[in-house]
Amino acid sequence: MKREAALLFGTAAAYMMAIMPEVRHKADTMKGVYYAHRGLHNLEQGIPENTMAAFGRAVDAGYGIELDVQLSKDGQVVVFHDFDLKRVCSVDGDVSDYTYEELRRFPVCNTRERIPLLADVLKLVDGKVPLLVEMKYKNFTSRICEEADRLLNAYHGPYSIESFHPWALMWYRRHRPEVCRGQLAMNFQRQEGNYSPERFAARHLLLNFLGRPDFIAYDIRDKKALSKNICRKLFGCPSAAWTVKSGEQLEQARPYYDSFIFEGFRPEKQPGRTA
After folding, report:
1. Which helix (DSSP H) or strand (DSSP E) does residue 233 occupy?
2. Catalytic residue ranges
3. CA distance 273 to 128
């Protein structure tokens, strides 16, 4: 009986050590902030996701901005969500297969908008609203972190970074520990049918020990996720909900999250501008 109790205690202790986030609470400034998911886009009005028009619209409305960054073939930091171009640009191949000049030729969602550079987005936003930058970590290389950080380190506005890949957080923990970093996660088994050990560990935040995130960005469809809520309640780690798609969903999520990434509607209570 004592042996079983010791084993149970050891397992619980190992679990808590694995999921434990950063405890310095750098993400407290994110609490209560609404982030427009890939900008304040509205395709019916000719304003597609992750474009200068969508970002300018979010700035004008006073919302924070969530955006995605990855590298072009020639190492430019571009703002684009999918690794492949098919859904958004109706073009075969990945973003990394084309130089930035080649990418600029492709209309975004059949509009006049083009894939922007992160550098241009930073100039546009100019510290007026907080940014939440998702690192699209690919092929186990930290180059996206290095190149994006080169730009963000010279930026004077408020920003945080996030990624599904714990290696990206590990890079920031080692090289830029002062930058607020977030672990993205979801129930990969329920939402994607992916039962791999890696996705199981990611769902339960068992790799937090690698990057020690300052906040957890978790799928709103799983607001009662155990590990996320332990991090929030026990360790005081803020959580961000993605992606909130209605006012009703927002109200249902409030008890479980501290900040909100939204699209398809405008939250009634807008955060104040930071500059």
Report:
1. helix 226-233
2. 37, 81
3. 6
